[in-house]
Amino acid sequence: MQVQPRQFISFDGSTRLKGFESKPENYRYLKDLSDAPKNVDAQQTALISRGAGLSYTAASFGEDVCSIDHAQFDRILSFDKENKCIEVEAGISLGKLYDFLIEHGLFLATQPGHPRITVGGCVAPDIHGKNQFMDGTCINQVESLKLFHPSHGIIELSPEQNPELFRLTCGGYGLTGNIISCKLKLKSIPSDMANVTLRPIACIEDLPKMLRESADKADFIFSWHDFNIRGKDFGKGFIQEGRFIANASIGEKTSIRKKAAEQSLNAETRGSLPFPIFNSISVAAMNALYGAKGNSGSSFQLSLFDSIFPIQNVKELYFKFFGAAGFHEYQAIIPESNFGQYIEGVRHALQKRNLPITLASAKLFAGKQDLLRFTGDGICFAMNFPRGQEADELMKELDRLLVNCKGAPNIIKDSRLSKEIVAATYPEYEHFRTLLHQFDPKRIYRSELSERLGL
Amino acid sequence: MNLILVGASAGLGRALAERLAREKHNLLLIAGDEADLKALAADLNLRHSIKTETCAVRLQSDEESVQRIITSAAAMGQIDGILFPLGYSRTDDDGMLGAIDANRIINSNMAGIIALCAHFLPAMLSRGEGLFVFFGSVAAERGRSSNIVYAAAKRGLQSFAESLRHKCAATNINVQFYQLGYLNTAQTFGKKLPFPAAEPKDAADVIVKNLNKRFGLQYYPWFWRFICLGLRYTPWMVFKKLKF
């Protein structure tokens, strides 16, 4: 397996490390990995899989770790339309998968917001979509998967076959080995069009109740809030509730999908602007404009592609506007009973600082937290803001607030989360670590994320 | 068309497989690793609804590997053309390779290709139509102290393609030869190159668009024509001092 040194950078701009990179083109690399301790320098024996490299955190690279690029492993291996099941290699992008499935009236129910993210990149951190309350997280869409580990070879995992390792791998941040392929459960789509209704939120404390009301009638929901307003209007915004329209079609243009799939956004190009465009004035103006669309309680129609992968046309700019310094995302699940306390804490923390909040958004979550998977009952709340000293202080304050509110942070979104905070918020942190060390005593698969969290 | 693609699993071959499948050509995919071939065939089949066959073999000039390809080709029906996007080189090809290693380079890059062409040529001649697409390397443009046997084999292949084109000149058998510069594949991964490497999918686009065009030799990327021209006419007194 050919390996070369490479400087990696995390998508949020926080982490720059020197590691190694390999770009295998065929399955021979698995044999090379099995022989790795014999063939590769000791420094390079630590491995981690890499998909599109769009994780906010350094989950697909680490210092002196060899990142194995899965770009060439993007093929569809089998498809059973009748039983709504597809087997794909882990490097396939969600956009490519979407293009194939839409022709058959099917889709993957749980997807993050960018079409270039790979299936392996969804399974490893057990991502969620805008319908978590209904469809769960990525693990709920995986029927089975094939995992490779140099000490164990290729292992088939499913809820029935090696169930513990299955749970450890879906949400294992790539630390159990290379995910080779996945069999995914699919859902039928009633049409390629969704009707989206905007419901204004005057008081953010009402959000949990309003999300619950929307959940009864929507296929996907998320909210948007303006956190740059001080006073009684703090957090006002709207809920965006979407429902697929049966037997309707807007004849989605493949050119739009193609354009989105060909976007150049990656960790390097994201930070191409030397200075940020976002500041208190520009963000206040942007939010005022965006927030105005929710005041009327209007509704509009969206294609399925735009429902799953929203605002692709401006998303590149949004992330680039943070400049080279990058951004923070603080995403956490807060138990509904403590949501008021959490929001009050956030309001208090923001009042002390002149920090532009570029995004504040919530989703409804349901389920039971397990190992290090980001799931559980509650409100999933996310905030974006530019990196800097004030932001660092805010993040620390939010950590303390979250522990008090018995919430859990999203590990894959936060590059500076400490082992202590994760251990305090994920009751099964130690159990995850124990299981991982039992499966892989040599701890071959490592990343900056795993080292930082003491895994 | 029913096409044979030799060296289909990676690099330019993989990109060509994808591009040809998009044009709805049925493909017999040939490469050394079965797992890669099966994955590729399944993907092309499902996404483009074409007929695919696979044959996991490393093309050599021996009877067995050629015969296995011929047997697999029988399942395709009439073969309309063969593309050979394959190459095998090694870093210790410095003129001191033993017979087995040197033969493997010659077999993979030239002799195996000639043996396979010899089987399918008679049927194409009797029909008066067909297609052969060969791929050389700018490394063979002028002999130098590295890639010695590889360059010799590729130059031999170029001569073979030229002869084949001459033989088929009165027919509709199209014989194309691409002299390839650097491509962004495993062969160039991690190497410091004096000129930019092209993407295999861009090369595949050009090659598939050109399938019906009649030409003997084409450089890809185009600028290599001028680099190679310069190399050919560099006086020996200067060339012998070049380190590359």
What would you say this structure looks like, in words?
The complex is a heterodimer of chains A (455) and B (244). With 455 residues, chain A is α+β, with helices and mostly antiparallel strands. Chain A has 2 domains: 76-189, Uridine Diphospho-n-acetylenolpyruvylglucosamine Reductase, domain 3 (2-Layer Sandwich), CATH 3.30.465.10; 193-419, Alpha-Beta Plaits. Helix content of chain A is 31%, strand content 24%. Chain A contains 17 helices and 19 strands. In chain A, helix 13 runs antiparallel to helix 14. The radius of gyration of chain A is 21 Å and the shape is globular. With 244 residues, chain B is of the alpha/beta class. Chain B has a single domain (2-239), classed as NAD(P)-binding Rossmann-like Domain (Rossmann fold), CATH 3.40.50. Chain B has 8 helices and 7 strands; from the N terminus they run E-H-E-H-E-H-E-H-E-H-E-H-E-H-H. Chain B has helices spanning 11-22, 34-48, 63-74, 99-127, 148-167, 200-209, 224-232, 236-239, and strands at 2-6, 26-31, 52-56, 81-84, 129-137, 172-180, 217-220. Chain B has a 7-stranded parallel beta sheet with strand order 3-2-1-4-5-6-7, sandwiched between helices. In chain B, helix 4 (99-127) runs parallel beside helix 5. The longest helix of chain B has 29 residues, at 99-127. Classes of the chains: A alpha+beta (455), B alpha/beta (244). Chain A binds chain B through residues 2-4, 23-28, 72-73, 75-79, 89, 100, and chain B through 9-11, 14, 31, 33, 35-36, 39-40, 42-43, 46-47, 185-186, 189-190.
Helices and strands in order:
The complex is a heterodimer of chains A (455) and B (244).
Chain A: E1 4-9, E2 16-22, H1 28-34, H2 36-39, E3 47-50, E4 66-69, E5 76-80, E6 85-89, H3 94-102, E7 106-107, H4 119-123, H5 132-135, E8 142-149, E9 153-157, H6 163-169, E10 178-185, E11 187-188, E12 193-201, H7 207-215, E13 220-225, E14 237-244, H8 254-261, H9 267-270, H10 280-295, E15 299-303, H11 304-308, H12 312-320, E16 327-334, H13 339-351, E17 359-365, E18 378-386, H14 389-404, E19 408-409, H15 419-425, H16 429-439, H17 448-452
Helix pairs in contact in A: 13-14
Chain B: E1 2-6, H1 11-22, E2 26-31, H2 34-48, E3 52-56, H3 63-74, E4 81-84, H4 99-127, E5 129-137, H5 148-167, E6 172-180, H6 200-209, E7 217-220, H7 224-232, H8 236-239
Parallel strand pairs in B: 1-2, 1-4, 2-3, 4-5, 5-6, 6-7
